[in-house]
Each structure stands twice: as C-alpha cells, then as structure tokens.
C-alpha cells in the first residue's frame, strides 16, 4: 500500500495527516474497556480523509482499492467496542461531512450517514412532529451511520425493540470498495447485512429510518430503599402497554450517589434509583405505581426550576453507556459488562453473588415480544482474569453476556456473522480493505459461525421458518 | 316507582314512551348469545329518556331517585353481554345526545359520553393527527361512554393493551344517582371503579382519553393453507416491537369463505386468513415475514382499486365481535366464546379437540408485557349443555374463558367487582337504581369476590405490592 499514491488520487477531497490529529481521530471510546485499552492503545491510521459528498466517498474508495489502502470508517467515534480503531493503519474515513437531511416524510426520514442524531430529531420534530424511535445515550454527538454500523438500540428500546428488528431501519445506502465503487440500496432483510457490521462490508452513506411520534418527554428520577424493589417496579411499569415510556433504567446504590455528579444531591444515602422518560400522559399512572411500590420522586423535569433545567443533563445522559462514562470520570478503574437477565430472579442472584463489585445497572427493554432485563452493570475492575470470572459467573447462572471487551464482530457476541454477511463482504469489499481485522470470518474461512454464545443480532436465519 | 310522576319531573327533557320504540331501544346485541336471547328477550324499559346536556342528566337522575325508577344507561347499544338490557324495567337513559367534543390537545381528547368513536377520531385526526389507541369493531356506531362502560379493548390492543390498564383512560366524569346528583371526576386508579361496570355505579357523561398517532393504516388480508402456521406467523409478527400494527387476527378456514361475504372471493378453498392493519412503514417487513412463513397476500388496501375500496368494509369490520356478527348473519345458529390461550400449543390443542364445531378466531393482543392469543372462537351452537361442555374443555386444558353468555359483571368474568367498586356503588347509587341486576355483589352482600374464575379487569388490587 502507498499512502502517498492514494493521497495523490484524492484530488481536492480534504485530508489530514498531522500525526497527532490523525492519532486523535483514530480513537473511539474503546477505553471504556481496560482490556481493549491495553490491546489497542498503539493503533493509529496514517491519514484522515473527510469526503464532503457521496461522489467523493466513491473517489476515496476507488483510490483505496487501487492502492490497497485499508479504510476504517468513522462517525463521531462514540462507539466503545473499538469498532472504529484502524487495526491495519491506512486511512481513517471520516464521514461527518456527509450530513445532509435528504427527505422528511410523515413517518420516516432519509439522511446522510454523518448527520448527528439530535440534529436529525430537531429537524423531523419541527417538520412532522416525529423523532427517531431510539438513540444511544451519545445522542448529542453520535451520527446516524455510526449508530447503524455499531449500535443496537438504546433510549426508546423500552417501546420499539432494537435496530436488529426488521422494520427498524427501512433502507441503507452503501458504497462498495472496488475498482469502480458502486452505490447499493439495501432494503428489507438486506439491511441486516450491514447493520452492526462496523463498516466491514460497505460504507454506509445514507439511511432511511421510521419516525416515532415526538413527545415532550418528562425526565423523572425515582428512589427506592431496595434495588430489587426498584426492579420490580420497573418490570411492572415496563409491562404496561398503556404507559408510553422512552427510558426505564434501575441503577443500584451507590451508582447515583457516587457517579451522577449533578444529580447526586437529589438522592439519599443507600437509595437505588430508576431513571425514567415518560410521555406526559404516562406520568400520572407511573407515579401511582411508584406509590404502590413504596418509591419516592427525587426529580421530575416538568416541575423543575429554570435553574435545574439549565444545570442538569437530560436523564438519558445518565443511562445506557453514559452510566459507565460517568463512573469512569470519577473512578478510572471502573469498567462494565453487557448482559441479559432472563428474569428478575437472575438479577437478584447476580447481585447477591457479586455485590458492590458489580454495581448493577439495568436497562428495561422490549425484545421479541417480551419485557427483558438488559444489563449494563458497572464492574470494579481488578484484573482481566477476574473479569473473565465474572463473565463465567453470569454464564453459570444462565445469564447472557455480550462481551464488550472484544473488538471483533464475532467475539463481542452482538452479532452473528453468518454466511450471507460474509458473502456480502466478498461482493462489496472483494479485497478486504474495509475495517480489516474486525470480521473474524473473513480472515479465517474455517471460522465456526456457531462458535459464539449469545447474539443480539441473530443474522438472517431466524426469519426463515 | 311511578313512571308518570318521574316523567312529570323531567320538564322538557326529551322522552319516548311508544311501546314499540321503547322495546327497540331496550335491546343491545345480547342476541349474539342464544343463552342470553332466551333469558332476556322479554326485557323492556317503560320509557326512554334522552337528555341533551349534563344538567339534564342530573335532572333525570334526581327524578329517578325521588320516584325510585330504575335507570339503565345506553350508548349505541352495540354491547353484547346484555349490559344495556333494563332487567328491572323503568327508564332507559339514552346518552347519545351528549356528543360534544370538549377539548382536543396534542396527546389527549376530552369528549362527552355519547360521542361516536369514529366521529371522535375524525375530529382528533384533523386537529392534531391523533386517534384513540383502540376501539371496538363497532367503531362506526359505538359511543365513547359505552366503550368505557362495557368494552375492554379491541382494534389497537395489539399495540396498546386494553382499557383496564392504568393510563388507558385518563379521566371519567360521572353523575351520581342521589337526591342531589353530583358530578364526580375520577382519575388515576379511581377510573377503574366505573370502567367496564355497565353503568351500575355512576352515569358516565364525559371522559378524557390519550391519543395515539394516527396513520394511514393499510388493510391487509393474507392466506395460509394451515391455520397453525397462520398463528405462528401472527405470533412472530406480533412479537416484533418494530412493526407498528393496529390489528392482527388469524381466522381459521372456513370462516372467511363462509362468512366474509364481500371478501370471500379473495380466499381459496381451505385457506385460513390473517386480518392485518399495518402502518405504512410496517407493510414491507410484515410481507417479508409472510413470505418466510409461506403465506400469500390476498388483499391489500394500498393496492386496491377505487371500486374495491368502495365495495369492501374496513378490515376491522371482519375482526373482533364483527367476526361473530358476520357469521350470525349467514347462520343464525352460530354463537361464540371469549377465551385466552396461554400459548400456541393451547390453541392447537383446542382446535384438535373441537375442530369445525369451534371455527377458531384469534385476536393477537399485548397484555401485561406479553403477546397473547385472545380467542373469540365461533361456536356451532347445539345446546346450552354442549356450550357448557365446550367451556369445560377449555378449562380442562388450561385455557381461560370469559363467558359472554352471562349478563352480570361477575359471572361474565370480565371484571372482578371488588370491595372498592361495591363501596363506590354505595356512594354513587345508594338506593341501587342504576342498571339493577348487573352487579351480583350489590344484591348479595355475602357474594364471594373470588368466586369467579378469570378476570380481564382485575379490580384495584393488583396495583398493590
């Protein structure tokens, strides 16, 4: 590969090769994981390329193909599985300049990959009163393309499931990495070929998403003396189809007291909290359930002062991966896991086994017709061995772990890379230049597709009878 | 009681006492049940009173109290448990003149009890793009008050649960039957005191309901060679939070061929059908699932001709109690049951045991966080004994039956009349004039509240810890 020859073919596509800036842009939030941090700290691209149009993306990919330059696509870099870390060096493809909102309709929006999610919602709310069904807690920075390439769900999953569900992404436009790069429009099941594939089999440049009705969501934080009661309340509330919620997350003590810097003054010692975003019509019934479960309202945005509204971050910036982020800011030794607890009993068991070594953080979601306890517990990290042991304790107790301390698609366990997806990489990236090292099945043709354990994205097969 | 004295106290409130008209207005759809038909055919009020304002309702109730006249409230009379049958004669209180839409807000609407549901939706759609979360199949005739007093859910329950869930009814205004009738506003849990209470403990005059976003729902009818495969498809589709549906109902062959007169030409011999209402964004993914399950599209309204759209009733008028209604029109010996099947295996078992004696009709709903098979199977009726046997066969196989061949609240099994509800009747109707004979617990103070078997409305207790 020749970076110089590659660069010469780019014409006036903006590039950046100052080593410090390139190094900075070669990072995502992989440092959430001490394991990934140790493994990936040295990684850097050699050049950052920032196309402004889809035609420029084609030119970049044609040049990469011609000169055999590895290309790692990047949105805002807010992912935390190392998905945007350029393992093979080469070019970092910054897609944030592709930020055109193409079309807003009553029930859907089409936009370019670099569009920031919050900005997109602001436009669709103003135009048609709609917003994305769900978004990560990095909503104010993350891009649409990055969310599709590396996300799975988030704020809104309590109502709408996840990105993996058919119908959650209506269409994705990718550009292939070939001698003559093509634009391909994927719809229906084909969307799953590139969703949560880290850009390994096509560069996402545009997507069409369904819109949910936008509400003036009310942020509520409630407190319980006992974490399991908090979970019981959350499960009951989550099970009511009548209650329109966007977020519902029980966090065990002392998460709020220790890590929610700007909210901690609302929380008493020993209280576990539940973070809630509720549509205005749902607030009253949620508070009725709260009273029955013996909880108390600690904060609600619809009764907050101007000063509070200015000072406090939105409740979703305490939830999902932001819970970990806030803990990390206070205590850099903290990390986390991604888990799923089949029932509340399983949550209770793990809490009893691991106690404060694993401050529990649950995200209530709906998946495949059921209310589920998705876990994002914090981990007071001591060693990689102990982390593996904690994973094993989960598995021994029939709790699923999607390991966030792995940077490949397969080992992370979020997605099963099946044959259809590998086949699509052969078509869209025949020489394997896109985000090399992230799809094990590409590098190891004998890879056993069933080797992993639990998958959030199950590939294309479950849709067959 | 003196009807003449009662009438004299009504002033200019419109009344009707022509025996044939009174008899006509003393009927609901109780004749769905041959059992109720035999028991209630002779029932008639003596006078129909049709107040035009809430003040006139108060005047009517004051006069009824003074003269000890039984009062049975009535909306459009589309209920089919005999709930609007005036067992004790007296006055039929026709509320259809109370049809003012009081207030439309972005996410809720407040209207008087006599407002027809379709008319209400038309107004809220035009004003704020919202519609009721769910409605009965009698949408074009039924009133808001009647739906709350006698309904449980319906079209939309696949997404929003049922009326019994906290938050499904925001507020109900009732008028008491006392010397000086009072207007009481019930909110929160108190709503459950009068929801599905047949007007036994207060006359509903106004209600506030949350709105769901309105879509241009697409009517789809699909066909399968095998009913259980149709159910499997329906269960899978129902379990996808990403698929925005309003209706999803598998009907076994030969229901469509024999009873769906205007749709039967679309259906091949032996095909079971699934009736679907899908938001435009959900159509494509639903059809992907359909293909995987080997089903075929028989009709879709978004590709129908003008002529078809004119000729065919909306798909919801094939579903819920309209399935029975259409069968009854063709074969007057048919009746139905209301059941719940815990799993598809249970559906399969009952179908295998009862075959064509019980042409199976399922409504997929979401209740308490789970996708459920709500059954409204047709019954080829032969005798009351055999009907009871069919009920027993269900119960012996762990399938719930909410018996629609009973006219009291308790025996129908839709609602558990608990002590709080009985207490409320004592407050709102101290002399027991409202819809006498429908609340067993009123007439029998020793009634065992736990005597019934299955309740759809569980009363107020489950909300306690």
UniProtKB/TrEMBL annotation, chains A, B:
UniProt organism field: Devosia nitrariae
One family name in Pfam for this protein: FAD_binding_4
Taxonomic path: Bacteria, Pseudomonadati, Pseudomonadota, Alphaproteobacteria, Hyphomicrobiales
Coiled-coil segments: none
Keyword Ubl conjugation: no
Domain FAD-binding PCMH-type positions: 40-214
PROSITE patterns documented for this protein: FAD_PCMH
InterPro entries attached to this UniProt entry: FAD-bd_PCMH, FAD-bd_PCMH-like_sf, FAD-bd_PCMH_sub2, FAD-linked_Oxase-like_C, Oxid_FAD_bind_N
Entry keywords, A to Z: FAD, Flavoprotein
Gene3D superfamilies assigned: 3.30.465.10
Name used for this protein in its record: FAD-linked oxidase
